[in-house]
Each structure stands twice: as structure tokens, then as C-alpha cells.
Specification:
rod-shaped, 19 strands, alpha+beta, three-stranded antiparallel β-sheet
Length: 359
């Protein structure tokens, strides 16, 4: 039956451990990190150079020999109550330069935040087999090791004063952790309520860039009204409109105006036409003018031939005529003044400051 949980050296870790054995300089393992594995329990691989999804990293609390005969070392990290809010499925060991030396998978557990109603110290241990423990630099200095709850209990009867100091420190850290958790929760709530794109109105002179310095706000513009954009958001942030309008004919009422009146009267008067109208007419045989038909047969006597002549020529002349006094009445309607189209005007309003969050 294969093991479900294991810890292995990475390729880089094996290489550095071998170099430590050759040079005689112990390998320094200084930090541990934990992650959530991206939501699934991972299988450690020697090709890894980092965790799948790291959530927390801290210096080791201790690094000791767990089994001298089997060359097994134990690396321990303690997570404080204020760290949490994620699942733990994977862990890794790093040297002082951040090189990933070993990876492991862990039984799944949730590390809560104080703000979620529960908080605790959590100890993470990785047991790792190496070629020889002498090649690994141990951490056994009591001055840098934080005692676990079990160790405090064992030493309680003989070191009550020391335990009281530890408890006092833990209480202070807990208070600080709670204050930090509350502050973080308030900030998280604020972020949820004020995402990028939020618009805020103020009836006083307020600059949200000063009030919320972790965010960036821009003023939407002076002397502007607000209209609702398209539901698909395609025109959000667009500017338009004007505070002035030019009245066009189409904006006038679609009505006609009655028109009545009379022309001025003209007195009776005698007038003469201009000169012209000279003319003559075709006449008969006795016409005084020149002939217009020189071979006219009279009756049935072919021997009796006469001419037919024009009348006399009436030269150019004029005429006198009388225009009686008169006047004229006038009535009618004009074209429509306009088309009765609505006219947009600036509405009554209250001026507020308007800011939009951009980041």
C-alpha cells in the first residue's frame, strides 16, 4: 500500500545537500511555507521549485534530529492565531536564499482567522530523511525556539514565572491579533462595498483619496448632471449634453396665425396707355390701301378683274381710360410656425461633489 502523505527532497535540495557533504559545510534550512495545493491534495515532486499555491511562510521554530539511526530530521514551524483563512494541504522547506529544498503533502486542515470566530496556534512538522544528519545545520538554540503548548505544560510546575510571562505575551499578541483581524475585516468589508467603478456623492468638500489612501479616486467633472447609461455598459463614463440650447423653428408650436387687413384706398383717376398698336386690315375693292389681291374676278365675268386692297394704316396711338377709386380686403393663414418639438432646459438642481473610484 503506497503512502498517502510524504516529504521528499527536491532536485535542488538533493544537489545542495550533496554539495554540503562534499564541502563539509552544513546545509542551512531556515524557512517553511504552507499552501492550499490549489484546492486539491498534491503529490510531492522532486521537480518542484515552489508550492502550488503558497499561503504563509515563516522562519523555522526548530530543526532537530528526530531519528539519528535513520538520518531523519524534523523541521517545525509555529503559525500564530492571526495567520489563517485558508486550507493547508502542502508544505515546503527553504534555505536562506529562498531555494526550495524539500516539499511535502499534509493531511487537509483549515486554519481559521480570529475574525471567523476561532483562532489558534498551529504547529507544522515535516520529517525528512537525508543521507546523513551531519550535513544539515540544526536549529536548537532555546533563545529562538517558541515552546509549544505541550512543552509549556511540562515545564509549568518548575517554571511558573516563565510560563506567566509567556501567557502575558500571548495575551498581548492575541489582543494585537484581534485588533489586526478586526481592522482587516473592516477593510475587507469596505473593499467589498466599494469596488473599482464605485461613485460617491458628498454634500461637503471631501477628497476620498485622502480619506481612503489605499484607493484612487477621480473627480467626475464640474457642473455635470448624471444620466443612467446603457444596461450593457457600452457608454458608461461617456460625456455629453450642454447647459445651453439654440431654439430652432422645429421647436416652435405647430399652429397657424390668422391674417386679416385691407389695402390702402386709391382715388379715381384718368390714365393713358403707352403709345403703340399701329395696324391695318385686309379690305375690299374700295380699300384705300395697297392691293393685297391684284387679280380678283368679279362675279362670273372673267373679263371683269379688280384689286382688293388693305384698309388705311392706323399708326401708333394711345388711349385714355378711367380707374375708379377702390380698395382690397386681405385674409389668410401663415404656414405652421414649427413642429411642437420638445425643448430641453437645465433643470432645478442641488450641487454635490462626485468622485469615481478608478483603482
Amino acid at each position: 500500500m503506497s503512502k498517502k502523505f510524504s516529504a521528499i527532497l527536491t532536485a535542488q535540495g538533493a544537489e545542495r545537500l550533496a554539495a554540503a557533504a562534499v564541502k563539509g559545510i552544513p546545509l542551512g534550512i531556515t524557512h517553511m511555507a504552507v499552501g492550499d495545493g490549489g484546492g486539491v491534495l498534491p503529490v510531492p515532486s522532486p521537480d518542484q521549485t515552489a508550492l502550488i499555491n503558497e499561503q504563509y511562510r515563516a522562519p523555522l521554530n526548530r530543526l532537530v534530529i528526530a531519528d539519528q539511526a535513520a538520518n531523519v530530521i524534523r523541521a517545525e514551524m509555529i503559525m500564530p492565531p492571526q495567520a489563517g483563512g485558508f486550507w493547508i494541504r502542502e508544505a515546503a522547506l527553504f534555505d536562506e536564499t529562498g531555494i526550495c529544498l524539500a516539499v511535502a503533502n499534509l493531511p487537509e486542515s483549515y486554519k481559521p482567522l480570529l475574525a471567523e470566530g476561532s483562532g489558534r496556534f498551529q504547529v507544522i512538522n515535516i520529517w525528512l530523511m537525508v543521507s546523513q544528519t551531519a550535513d544539515v545545520q540544526m536549529i536548537a538554540d532555546p533563545s529562538v525556539i517558541l515552546a509549544t503548548v505541550e512543552e509549556v505544560r511540562r515545564a509549568g510546575n518548575n517554571a511558573k514565572d516563565y510560563a506567566d510571562d509567556i501567557v502575558s505575551t500571548l495575551e498581548n499578541e492575541t489582543r494585537e491579533a484581534i485588533a489586526s483581524a478586526v481592522s482587516t475585516a473592516i477593510r475587507d468589508f469596505w473593499e467589498a462595498e466599494n469596488p473599482v467603478g464605485t461613485v460617491r456623492f458628498y454634500s461637503q468638500h471631501v477628497d476620498p483619496n485622502e480619506r481612503y489612501p489605499w484607493s484612487t479616486w477621480t473627480y467626475t467633472g464640474e457642473n455635470r448632471t448624471i444620466r443612467v447609461a446603457k444596461a450593457d455598459g457600452s457608454n458608461v463614463g461617456a460625456n455629453g449634453g450642454s447647459d445651453t440650447v439654440t431654439l430652432q423653428r422645429a421647436n416652435l408650436p405647430a399652429v397657424q396665425i390668422d391674417v386679416t387687413g385691407s389695402a390702402s384706398e386709391v382715388e379715381a383717376q384718368n390714365l393713358r396707355t403707352g403709345r403703340g398698336g399701329g395696324h391695318k386690315h385686309k379690305g375690299g375693292m374700295a380699300g384705300p390701301g395697297e392691293a393685297w389681291d391684284s387679280n380678283y374676278i368679279v362675279g362670273s365675268d372673267n373679263d371683269s378683274r379688280r384689286t382688293r386692297n388693305y384698309t388705311s394704316d392706323e399708326g401708333e396711338h394711345d388711349h385714355e381710360y378711367t380707374v375708379p377709386g377702390h380698395g382690397h380686403s386681405v385674409s389668410g393663414k401663415t404656414d405652421n410656425l414649427g413642429e411642437s418639438k420638445s425643448l430641453s432646459v437645465v433643470e432645478a438642481h442641488t450641487l454635490l461633489m462626485c468622485w469615481s473610484r478608478v483603482s
